[in-house]
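Attaching the record inline, Q. Sequence:
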Amino acid sequence: MNKVPLTVTGANKLRAELDELKTVVRPRIIQAISEAREHGDLKENAEYHAAREQQSFAEGRIAEIEGKLSNANIIDVTKTDANGKVVFGATVEIEDIDSGKVVTYQIVGEDEANIKEGRISVGSPIARALIGKEVEDVVVVKAPGGNIEYEILSIQYI
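Structure, as predicted:
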């Protein structure tokens, strides 16, 4: 299986979620199942079935996170020698040349992307256009509504 790029922050968030699932959620679900069993007939016991469903979801999420972490290529952008170029993990401030609108994005792995928080996937059209470019470069992003030109204003490795 191919290694999936992940920032240090993204990896830490996944580890924290995994720890929460294993140390808090899993024991709480086991307790709920135990209590539901004490109520008798399991066929008509809604509490039991709900707890089992929660257990299935939690165990699935645990397996998913463990899989992601085992296949992750964790990249610390602060230790990357990028020579002023846009690389995975970099935070890039760009300006739409037509509208003058300025936005800042961090280029992250697919699982970390959240446009509302300014994190875009390395596979997105904007990120693909930015990778390898430098400050003052103009990039053209092919968007559904036509091409958009952006100028790179700054690049940070934080």
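Helices lie at 8-37, 46-70, 125-130. The domain at 4-75 is CATH 1.10.287.180 (Helix Hairpins).

More tomorrow.
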